[in-house]
Specification:
Shape: globular
Strand content: 25-35%
Largest sheet: 6 strands, antiparallel, barrel
CATH topology of the largest domain: Rossmann fold
Distance between the termini: 43 Å
Strand order of the largest sheet: 12-15-14-13-16-17
Length: about 375
């Protein structure tokens, strides 16, 4: 199946989130003649009454969209799966001083595993989502095809970074109808159709947790363990509330803005976490050498083809919305790890985040950053 070509006709279960992207995805598939069923996933139960969880409002929007498009909508609760497979790992990583990306794990474990399993029970041939990514099927020499994950054509919305952990089994049964569209086109389609969520604001919060003060949220699950904030010379310049609540490169919320350092007038950034001493190390200046890394080691690898790429020159992202960085990929000695050596130093390479490798427009896969090095 070439990117953008969705045929022959299939029974497709579409993840309807209540947002405009999944709504237009469902409509496009219906227009192409596919048998489309909507599935709304509820994945967070802990605090629906706080005002931050929008699941009820989102379901109302999804139901309204399904009514306009003319498709059935099913409501399913994956909260237990989300808590076990995603949120527990999320907390473990923060407790270890790393900064995880729950959206990556949520896609691999919930949206394209629990959701896919449930959709299969509904008789689905494939599932579809509103992600800005593409799939291309490439013939294999021995027969069959390999599903490649490609970047979405809208560079400002490409979400292949979040999908890099999808396996061949998941990719082979997944469609991304918006991959060849720009966000402006999607909005225009929604407005032309009169979809009730055509102007709905995009969600920017953590996957299924919502938009809320993050430190306040994390404090409900992780105990505060205050300690010193030190500058590069070891001088104590403040106190942190717990290393779990900070990430490398962080500028806001440090409480050291009035402290005079060696580089007067330049902002402070988190540069290191000393877990053994429970000390947070900050430096002044965005381009301080302690914020720059020439390479990284990654673990927990996942490759879309099912096997690692050969050592060669590629491009990689160490965080979402980062520009592709030229690098050289080397397979690690453990089999499940790899190293990247960058052509140019990278800023605030953060353990726990994902290092995602690209060969042109093809997303090869990646791993979780274990450490950065000079």
């Amino acid at each position: 199946m070439a990117a953008g070509v969705l045929s022959p006709l299939r029974r497709v279960v579409v993840g309807l989130s209540g947002g405009v992207d999944s709504a237009v995805s469902a409509w496009l598939l219906k227009q192409q003649g596919h048998e489309v069923v909507g599935l709304f996933m509820k994945n967070w139960d802990d605090d629906d009454d706080t005002g931050y969880c929008s699941a009820n409002e989102d379901f109302v929007d999804a139901a309204a969209v399904a009514d306009v498009i003319g498709i059935d909508l099913e409501h399913v609760n994956f909260a237990a799966d989300y808590k076990d497979r995603v949120f527990a790992e999320f907390l473990r990583e923060y407790q270890a001083g790393r900064t995880p990306n729950p959206d990556v794990l949520c896609n691999a474990e919930i949206k394209f595993r629990a959701f896919l399993d449930h959709a299969t029970g509904l008789g689905a041939d494939v599932i579809a989502t509103g992600h800005y990514a593409r799939r291309r099927d490439v013939p294999l020499a021995g027969g069959g095809t390999e599903a490649q994950l490609l970047k979405g054509l809208d560079p400002s919305k490409d979400q292949s970074y979040f999908l890099h952990r999808l396996s061949q089994a998941q990719l082979q049964r997944s469609w991304f109808p918006l991959g060849a569209l720009h966000k402006t086109e999607v909005r225009q389609i929604a407005q032309r159709l009169g979809l009730p969520n055509a102007k709905k604001k995009d969600s920017t919060g953590i996957c299924f947790i919502g938009e809320r003060p993050f430190r306040e949220f994390l404090n409900r699950y992780l105990a505060a363990r205050p300690g010193p904030i030190e500058d590069e010379d070891g001088r104590v310049v403040g106190q942190h509330m717990g290393l779990s609540f900070y990430t490398l490169g962080q500028r806001q919320g440090l409480g050291v803005g009035g402290v005079k350092g060696a580089h007067a007038g330049q902002p402070w950034f988190v540069a290191r976490k000393d877990m053994a001493r429970n000390a947070l190390v900050v430096v002044q200046g965005h381009d301080h050498p302690w914020l720059l890394s020439n390479g990284l080691q990654a673990a927990q690898c996942s490759w879309c083809s099912g096997k690692p790429p050969p050592p060669a020159a590629y491009h990689a992202k160490t965080r979402y919305r980062q520009a592709d960085a030229a690098c050289h990929w080397t397979n690690g000695s453990q089999g499940g790890d790899f190293s990247l050596r960058f052509d140019e130093p990278q800023w605030a390479v953060t353990p726990g985040q994902s290092a995602v490798v690209y060969d042109g427009e093809v997303c090869l896969g990646g791993g979780v950053i274990a450490q950065a090095f000079d």
